[in-house]
Amino acid sequence: MDGLHTFFISGMLAACMILITCLIHYEFMGLVTRVLPRLRGRARRVNVLLVVGGMFVAHTVEIWAWAVAYVLVLKMKWGALLGQVGAQDFWELLYYSTVSYTSLGLGEIYPQGALRLLTGAEALAGLIMITWTASLTYLIMERDWGFRK
Questions:
Q1: Which of 17, 35, 56, 97 is most buried, by CB atoms within 10 Å?
Q2: Which domain CATH number covers 130?
Q3: CA 11, CA 144: separation in Å to the nearest integer?
Q4: What's the rounded mean pLDDT across residues 71-75?
């Protein structure tokens, strides 16, 4: 597959995955914030645990979604993972997705072909989703813990 074709495919897939990631995150945030008012009389720690726990689940679902996208790219032979990679099964791709999403980037596995742009997009999406989670957590804590004067 030539460079332009690879770039187009990975760009379209990256755009779809970013949209999916944002939608998953938005829906989890909505779910968490709908449940919180029901717990208004509960301890503050319950609210924080609900927010952090719920958003941790959201991040996990998003990482799994990106891993599925990597499976698609590998099945279509649009790219490959090189380096210290074992069998390129789902679990290896899930590990790679986790490292990419969290921007950890250990470097023992590196992408080739359509996976290069997709990996960069996942790192950017992960960074945005993590900061979005931090913002929500802060706002809930500010409201519940009376930080405003």
A1: 97
A2: 1.10.287.70
A3: 41
A4: 91
